Amino acid sequence: MSLRNRWGLRAGLVQLSVLLTLLGSLLPTPAAAHGERATEPYIRTRTVHWYDVTWSSQKINVSDTVTVEGKFHLFTDWPDAATKPELAFLSNASPGAVMTRVESYINGMPAQQSVRQLEIGRDYSFKLVMRGRIPGRWHLHPVLNVHGAGPIVGPGHWVDVAGSAADFKVPVTTMTGEVIDDLQHYGVARVQWWQAGYALLAIAWIVWWIRRPLIVPRWNAIKKGREDLLVTRTDDRVAAGLLVVVLVVVIAGYRYTTQKYEYVVPLQAGSFKTKPLPQESPVVTVELKDATYDVPGRSLRLDVEITNQSGSPLRVGEFSTANLRFINQSLDVALAGVDPSFPKDLVPGSGLRISDDSPVAPGETRKLRLEATDAAWETERLVSFLTNVDSRVGGMLFFFDGGGQRHMAEVSGPIVPVFTQLRLAEKS
Amino acid sequence: MNLNDLAILKVSGLSPQAIKWSRTLDVLIVIVAAFLIWAVSHISFLLLGGDWDFFIDWKDRQYWILIIPITTITMAAAFQAIFWNLFRLPVGATASLLLLLVGTWIVRYHSWQGLAFFPISLVVPGTCLMGALVLDAVLVLSRSWLVTGAFGAVLYGLLFYPSNWIYMAGYFQPVQNMGDMTSVADLIGYTFPRAGTPEYIRIIERGTLRTFGDTPTWVSAFFSAFACIFLYYLFWGLGVLACNSRFFPVGDRFKSIYGGKSGAADSEPALKPGVPS
Amino acid sequence: MSTHVVSSVPSPQVSSAAAGRSMFNFVPVAIGWGLLLAVYASYRLYQGAFAFEYGLDATSPEFARYWMTLFKVEVPLIFGSGLCIWTYLWFTRDRDVAKIDAETELRRYFSLVAWFMMYTFSFLWIASFFGEGDATWHQTVIRDTALTPSHIVVFYACVPLYIVFGVSSLLYATTRIPAFARGYSVPLIMAVLGPGLILPNLGFNEWGHAFWMTEEIFSHPLHWGFPILGWTGLALGGLFIQVVGRMAELFKEVGGPASDAA
Question: Which residues on neighbouring strands pair with residue A258, listed in sequence order?
């Protein structure tokens, strides 16, 4: 026993020291993801598409706020395996309650409660106001929890919170006028004092019994039929007294409390509904003809047929999927669409390559090959084809007309992985 | 050591030396029992009704009041059965709830606050300790599990709500947030976000008690009291069942593996104990 | 207190050679508890340092370095250590167990209680401390693997640890105490096997979680295997009868009868 523990402890200490050394020397980056990389690609590319997401600040002090806002599009080709967004909740991912939620809105409506009946194929705006609580460097993501599908995580950005956690307070005034200094500690002492009182009563009761000759003597007494010695008249009186004390304390305490808190409300449980953002009439249709993923080259190739139904020429500016944004580097308006606050690691530098980048004329139908190449496909675990039951991929294509007006279109379909260079040559 | 204690020792027929050993055994058994009661009560409650206890914004009028008593009375009844049947010690229910409360508070501090930065106001626990005291007291007064189930278990279920409302009521004061009226408890839950616990996942009253006007709490408390009767009997029975002291014969194969010199496993067990009458 | 008891009982009479000798040595148990406490405290400190820092993304290299390494080291280390203890207990078994004297038997019963003290202490850490700690993790972050920083501690360190002590208790009783060598003790097997089955029950747990139960409800029926297996700890009642019943006889045999027992 002691041998086992000694070795266990020694091995643990050795391991701990090795890890601490590694920590000191390599300084690995703390996790930037919050578990979303394990979510299957068909969910991440075909459910919630976050766009125009901005962070108001990346450096705040304790008690200061940071606002994350933007929009999300609910993809039409929603995968079978994930429940449709009939019931959802706007949340955020962060390592514990390091930041607090001050306000949250979907389409400008307060989102303290869950939202019902979100419409597939439509767009919604969101806004999260978060407040720094614990100093540190925290990765802040918007999250849409979809009942039955789980949390679908939006893009995350680092937020540095400086200062002292001791300075953080959440003061609240109730509608009955009671001023709560700090929501973090509210009511805790009252709970603890009362429960300590209950516990003292319980301890007294247990000690009353276990102070006596206990196990074998009582066992033997029962065997000899002398139960009368084990539970006596005195015990009866103590038990009766205890019963009275408990009832008096609870009834009196309850009466006092109900008089003190005249106005109370139950937990709020109603959900809300909101109409999606206005939908523009489709100005461009996109048909996916072929999609391949070049495994060795880490490149997604989409052969699409684009029909411009608008009155102005259009150019492809961006392909966005699973929070990755592949930008057409030669289109200034598309580049300008990337907010300076947007995390750089989600905007691959190689951008989006287009076989023919000239504007698609009004009424024209054109076949294009789009190539989105980056190691992010691997690091974000978006190409785990061999382990997935649903090998379809989806994304949003952003088009821009000459006036800089943006038009969005969904693109989705089956994707074929190409594992060898030879097959790749055949495909191209 | 009072006269009653001396009388018990006398009846037990132990020599002074054996009494000394017996007292050592008392201490050891109390320690073993405390660890076990603590562990079993906590793991049982944790995974049958823990959610309503973890968070202040799960403590509703319909389920919290119902589920906490009916999930905790299980182990309270089982341990009461064991310690009453074997030693006539009416402390099983109280010990179960007291140790559960201690364990809960430790975890609320070290884990919810210490590991994940949640404020204690979000994770204050409730307790059925007052009901447990009543359960043990009724057992003493009645000396009967049947009566304890009929009266003690009812009080156990009924007492949970008022004994906790004394210190929880403040969390249900109305407060305004983003233009909506909500409770302080809801606001605490909203303010300190949990990515794995979205609002909709709460199993709370969603308006189905409308026919009872403003008194759904007592409706839930009475239903809880009713359910507690049956759960008390069921788990008292499990406690009695757990006092099975049978030995099965080890069989020839074991004997040959064991390689005992002379009948290590030959004869029937000398001891055939049973639950004392 | 016990000294007082001795002087308070009329006509003290000690008829055994064991008189005045201590039956139980608390030191090994205290050392065992201390070491276990150090192990559990280290785990908690490790979680505090690295769980939220490197444990949120199971696909990251930091996760592999900080958490999977721990997992790969702890499981063979704990079960390996357990195997050594079990092997030792088996090979040092008393082949003449039916013939031991009453005092030896009584001492062995006390030792068995010492094993229970270790077993119940180790079970407490998963059932209470790290058990509810698991809720802290899964109800507040996004579940992305079966081997989370919480599970690597609660399931793959705490469970193997108490299995080691549970099986050791069983082996100690079976190899050294006549009643437990003559027959398989139903309550002891229940008390050891039941909690032990929590480990294979993880298969059901993780299989169930694969069905989109990425958002945690602790009280979900999927989790009910854990409390039900935990209830097997109630078999302590049956064990009390077996152990206390025999010890009560041995107290009289070894300690001698009281002169004027009723």
Answer: none
Query: Would the CB atoms of A12 and C42 count as touching at under 8 Å?
Result: yes
Number of C-beta neighbours around residue A23 at 10 A: 17
B10 inside domain: no
Opening angle at CA A103, ends A99 and A109, nearest 5: 150
Q: Which of C139, C212, C242, C254 to mutate to test the interface with A (most CBs of A within 10 A)?
A: C212
Residue A22: pLDDT band by 50, 70, 90 thresholds? very low
Dihedral of the alpha carbons of B181, B183, B185, B191, in degrees to the nearest 10: 20
* pTM given for the model: 0.91
Q: Where are the domains of chain C?
A: 25-254
CA angle C144/C149/C151 to nearest 5° reads 85
* Tens digit of each residue's pLDDT (9 = 90 or more) over A308-354: 999 999 999 999 999 999 999 999 999 999 998 899 989 999 999 99
CATH of domain C25-254: 1.20.1050.50
Q: Which amino acid is at C114?
A: A
Quote the tokens at residue A357: 């980048």
- Residue B192 belongs to domain with CATH number: 1.20.1450.10
Query: Is A265:A389 a contact under the CB 8 Å cutoff?
Result: no
Q: Which pair of tokens denotes residue A229?
A: 């010695």
Closest CA of chain A from B224, distance in Å:
17
How large is the C-alpha radius of gyration of chain A? 31
Q: Give the separation between CA C39 and CA C104, rounded to whole angstroms.
A: 33
Runs of H (alpha helix) within C55-101: 61-63, 69-91
Question: What's the rounded Cα separation, in Å, for the pair A67 and A131?
Answer: 9
Cβ contact (<8 Å) for A174 and B196?
Answer: no
Chain A contacts of C57, Cβ < 8 Å? 31-35, 37-38
Domain extent listing, chain A: 36-176, 188-260, 284-427
Level-2 CATH architecture, domain A36-176 = Sandwich (2.60)
Q: Which of C198, C205, C208 is nearest to C158 (CA)?
A: C198
Residue-by-residue DSSP string for A119-167: PTT-EEEEEEEEEE-S-EEEEEEEEEEETTTEEEE---EEEEEES-GGG
Q: How many CB pairs under 8 A join B and C?
A: 340
pLDDT tens string for chain C (262 positions)?
Answer: 333 333 333 333 444 455 566 889 999 999 999 999 999 999 999 999 999 889 888 888 999 999 999 999 999 999 999 999 999 999 999 999 989 999 999 999 999 999 999 999 999 999 999 999 999 988 888 777 889 999 999 999 999 999 999 999 999 999 999 999 999 999 999 999 999 999 899 888 888 887 755 677 889 888 999 999 999 999 989 999 999 999 999 999 998 877 654 3
Lowest-confidence segment of A116-130, A266-280, C131-145 by average pLDDT: C131-145
- Tokens for A130, please give them: 């978060």
Chain C partners within 8 Å of B194 (Cβ):
139-140
Closest CA to B100 of C220, C129, C154: C129
CATH of span A284-427: 2.60.40.1580
Tokens of A408: 């969005």
User: Is A231 in Cβ contact with B90 (below 8 Å)?
Assistant: yes
Q: How many domains does chain B have?
A: 1
Helix or strand holding residue B30 (H, E): helix B16-54
Query: Looking at this protein, which amino acid is placed at residue A414?
Result: P
Contact criterion met (CB < 8 Å) for C248 and A81: no
